[in-house]
Amino acid sequence: MSKLYGPELSKVFDEIYQGFIDYDAEQDFYAKLCHDKKVDSVLELGCGTGNLAPKLSSEFKEYIGLDYSDHMLYIARQKFPSGNFIQGDMRNFHLPKKFDAALITGRSTSYLLTKEDLLNTFVSIFEVLNAKGTLIFDCIYATSFIPYILDNPTVIHKSKVNNIEYSRTSKWYSKKTDLSLIHWDSSYYQQQGINQEFLGKDTVIFKVFTKTEIISALNSAGYEVMKTLDKPSYAFDTFVVVAEKSK
Fold first, then answer.
1. What CATH number corresponds to the domain at position 83?
2. Is 171 exposed, middle or buried (0-12, 13-18, 19+ CB in 10 A)?
3. Does residue 98 sit in helix, strand or coil?
4. Which end of the chain is more exposed for a tag (fewer CB within 10 A), N or C?
């Protein structure tokens, strides 16, 4: 598992991303998509440290957040004690009830490293959705991200939270045999005044899919794509897919 989601850096992740992402806007974005589909119950996969949980829990009759990392879930429960969080692997999980909508947030689809992982995830979610249930998730644009990292192998992103300045130095590279598998080395720092402190380093592999690959996997799993939405982020362009259980 990535150190970012383990005991070494999970708290760093929670703090630094508060400055990277406008979570109020994220909450509103996903809540509106769910309201548009008139859902009552929501399952969030890759819920991380629970940043979307308060609004989703308050606006829908039922909310459950699922994440692979116990350390991320520990922080989520500390921040939002009344939330309903469970540990699980989105590629293969089972729940005793069904939901109107499932969300995969935070570009967590990038940690599905094969087409088989992607298909298994969609199938597992299919089994816990009600008839005509909705799947909503975000992805990185493979067609724009791969050229971007080839031109920008090292990028620094900065974040300021509670008067503490954080920075992340990212180094990206991919092998010529498979440009869609991205090796990501990241180093994290915090600075107060003139003093800079090294917080830790993480190395992980993630995958970027094309829209064609995503839609093909959804169709194979029994979904119909209703729409896709462009969704810029602090680092690179992403898109959101809204699909409906069709079988």
1. 3.40.50.150
2. middle
3. coil
4. C
Question: What global pTM score does this model have?
Answer: 0.94
Whether residues 102 and 17 share a domain: the answer is yes
Alpha-carbon span 9 to 153, nearest angstrom = 23
What DSSP designation does 52 have?
Answer: S
Distance in angstroms between the alpha carbons of the first and the last residue of the chain: 34
pLDDT of 196 reads 87
Q: Which tokens sit at 233?
A: 């982020």
CB-based burial label for 170 (10 Å; 0-12, 13-18, 19+): middle
**Which three-class secondary structure state does DSSP give residue 237?**
strand
User: What is the domain extent for residue 202?
Assistant: 143-207
Q: What is each CA distance from 126 to 92, 122, 234, 243, in whole angstroms?
A: 11, 6, 31, 11
